[in-house]
Amino acid sequence: MPDTENKTTFCRICEPLCGMVATVEDGRLTKLRPDRDHPLSAGFACQKGIAFAEIVNDPDRVTTPLRRTPDGFVEVGWEEAMSDIAARLTAIHRRHGSGAIGWYMGNPAAFSYSHLFGVTAFIKGIGSDAHYFTASTQDTSSRLLASQFLYGSPLAVPIPDLARTDLLIMMGANPLVSHGSLLTAPRIKDRLREIIDRGGRVIVVDPRRTETAAEYEWLGIVPDGDSALLLAMLNVLFAEGLVDEKRVAALADGLEWLRRQCAPFTPEATVENHGIDPDRVRELARTLAATPRAAVYGRFGTSVGRHGTLASYLIDVVNLLTGHLDQPGGSVFSTLGIPGQRAGMMAMGASLRRTYRRKRTRIGGFRAVIGSEPAALMAKEIAVPGDRQIKALFVSAGNPVLSVPNGDELESAAAGLDLMVGLDLYVTETTAHCDYILPVTTMYERDDFAITFQQFQATPFRQATDAVVAPPGLARSEWEIIDDLMRRLSLRTPIFAVFGAMRFLLRRFGREFHPRPVIDMIIRLADGGNRFGLRRSGLTFRRLIGEHPHGKVLGDNIRTGVLGEVVAYRRPRLRLAHQDIAAEIARMSEYALPQDYPMRLIGMREPASENSWMHNPPLLWRSGKRQQRALIHVADAARFGIEDGDPMRITSPHGEIVLPAGVTEDIMAGVVAVPHGYGHKGTGGWRNANRAGGANVNLLMSSDPDDVEALAGMSQLVGVPIRVARDDDAPRRGSDAVEEPVGAEV
Ligand SMILES: Nc1nc2c(c(=O)[nH]1)N[C@H]1C(S)=C(S)[C@@H](COP(=O)(O)OP(=O)(O)OC[C@H]3O[C@@H](n4cnc5c(=O)[nH]c(N)nc54)[C@H](O)[C@@H]3O)O[C@H]1N2
Ligand SMILES: Nc1nc2c(c(=O)[nH]1)N[C@H]1C(S)=C(S)[C@@H](COP(=O)(O)OP(=O)(O)OC[C@H]3O[C@@H](n4cnc5c(=O)[nH]c(N)nc54)[C@H](O)[C@@H]3O)O[C@H]1N2
Ligand code: SF4
Ligand SMILES: [Mo]
């Protein structure tokens, strides 16, 4: 009989962090099922969460350090790998300084506190010229910068108060597939349904009639038209006297400036930009102003257009002017509730604002939001000679060859690096170029507390977990790897010296140098915490795991009236007037699609896929819903003589791909939607993913500094100008048979 145990934990693939029960047989994770006793996800988990057991046990997973040789990768020991990496990195640092060193940290890192701490420690320690890239310039930097402008800190990001709202206007989000973003709300489909059940409305503003739009009210918009729509709504609010000016004046500076900015943008003047009937725009503004509990929420689609910072800023401004910011049922701040949190917000806000003001990227002169440079320019930072040219690049939990514009450029740049190191579960299209691939733990092989997502909790909630199984083979956590590397480097930077002293002191007390005590401190100080003994039964990291394995709900609702704690400017008032915003409004007004590219490209996510990295588990493969297609409106398809399943050529000013067409009425005319993350071409070691076919849509995206969003350095991933044609050279592939996947023997 095997020794079988069921261990309660939670999923960390995407943001709801659904409760999970892991079956562990003889130390091996054999099954994952949803945790029925989790107070919020209550027995829900999606197919990706369940299939993760196949990632843990994937025969294609890297579990030993790999070194690249002319004949391919060979397995090596940690000692050999780390001593060589440390020696080469030290030499590069001595010769060229910290400006020759870069790190790209991808999306899954956001789900691991120790990974985040490790990379932050390394990048701060190695020297102030180092290059730091994250997935956030493909995703959130614009949203964070809007917060920095308005509240003085990129860390103050409001979320819609799902539990109490009666009108939710959702722009550029598809939570029925994505499960929510910058919004941690398990069973989000039920939460949205409850809005309808209590007589409310959910309006989905999206160029595609998405899975979410189909459930609620769809308002089709021209891609990248959000800023124009929001300016027009503000114009109506001002024109019709719907702004509670006294209230706004009590909270914010710059109302008159804002009024002037909006003046030219009437619904009629903007209709070409957003494509929405002027009467509907007026009605939308009036309804929003007249509904006491209402919120506008924007996410991925509003963040990655040409003007993502402007759109995100305008969303909050509309919430403010209609009286819905920081109000029950409105757009609210889910804070940790740490005593003196305003002082902390002020200190961090001031430091991040300073970085934004002072730091300029070598290529393009961009400013860095949360210290992170535009990933779209990473290839040029490697390839273009000069001071601060990147010679050594680390990539952890990211696959930028597929996720960032112009992956081909990045691949050829990578060939010129003196040292490239990947920390990943797989040989991917990106790590395939590395000199070393270092095997890491999956989420079920490490302890965790999802620190990143605490402030996005729609219901105040805490959960922590221990590792469920031991890492396979030689896999190690990112923290262990980075800590080992920092110890081995023969560099005496001031911060590494401090770490050395801390390590020494802690060892004398029999303790390890590890970020866990920092997280424990946050849990203790935050709402529900034990406040270091002041609240006897309060939470600690250990207690969360031991006494609340399914997590702990801290209250039904998010506290409102917290602007005074959240705003990080010295005077606790919002700032509406920004020259940068005015400049973006001007840029938006001047923009026209390039000639010959009259259509616009957007993205779409699929339920059985996660960015570029869940194409290997056989369980997801078998669900059979995952053939990458390019959706196009029936009228456009007819115009170009394209039938469903026909090969369609999509051309942008920067590249060309061919995909089977999916002809549909559920998209705006003039728009094409393509899922990203495909285009595995056999350089990676994930055998099923390699057979998933498809094309890398990011070959159509631009890595030209002129196309990078000016304020936050965002890659433009939606609203991208394209043209399409039937591809007569390609074989018809609408009816491709799905091959049997390589098994994971779970
Ligand atoms: N199944 C699955 N779930 C995921 C992921 C995944 O890959 N697969 N990825 C995860 C990650 S990393 C993230 S960041 C989240 C993102 O989750 P969400 O923020 O919900 O984003 P998307 O699902 O990409 O939905 C964005 C929507 O914006 C629309 N859109 C495109 N252009 C525009 C525009 O100009 N204006 C407006 N108003 N809408 C536009 C698109 O049609 C799309 O429906 O999802 C996470 N969850
Ligand atoms: N065109 C287009 N491009 C997009 C998007 C889009 O919608 N359209 N979405 C963008 C968004 S929102 C995002 S967040 C980015 C994501 O882009 P990236 O973060 O660059 O890449 P992912 O595809 O998420 O790949 C994650 C990698 O991490 C590895 N991994 C998984 N778990 C772990 C772990 O615990 N530790 C380590 N070390 N590695 C791990 C996986 O094997 C995989 O190789 O893509 C962006 N790119
Ligand atoms: S929705 Fe799916 S992938 Fe996301 S946390 Fe829940 S189970 Fe995991
Ligand atoms: Mo993302």
UniProtKB/TrEMBL annotation:
What SUPFAM superfamilies does the database record attribute to this sequence? ADC-like (SSF50692), Formate dehydrogenase/DMSO reductase, domains 1-3 (SSF53706)
Q: Does the keyword Metal-binding apply?
A: yes
Q: Which GO terms describe its molecular function?
A: iron-sulfur cluster binding; metal ion binding; molybdopterin cofactor binding; oxidoreductase activity
The record's listing under Pfam families reads: Molybdop_Fe4S4, Molybdopterin, Molydop_binding
Keyword annotations from UniProtKB, A to Z:
Iron, Iron-sulfur, Metal-binding, Molybdenum, Oxidoreductase
Matching SMART domains: Molybdop_Fe4S4
Which residues belong to any copy of the 4Fe-4S Mo/W bis-MGD-type domain?
3-60
- Basic and acidic residues bias located where? 727-736
Q: Does the keyword Acetylation apply?
A: no
Q: Where is this region: Disordered?
A: 727-746
Give the lineage: Bacteria, Bacillati, Actinomycetota, Actinomycetes, Mycobacteriales
Q: Which organism is it from?
A: Nocardia bovistercoris
InterPro entries (alphabetical):
Asp_de-COase-like_dom_sf, MoPterin_dinucl-bd_dom, Mopterin_OxRdtase, Mopterin_OxRdtase_4Fe-4S_dom, Mopterin_OxRdtase_prok_CS, Prok_Mopterin_Oxidored
What name does UniProt use for this protein? Molybdopterin-dependent oxidoreductase
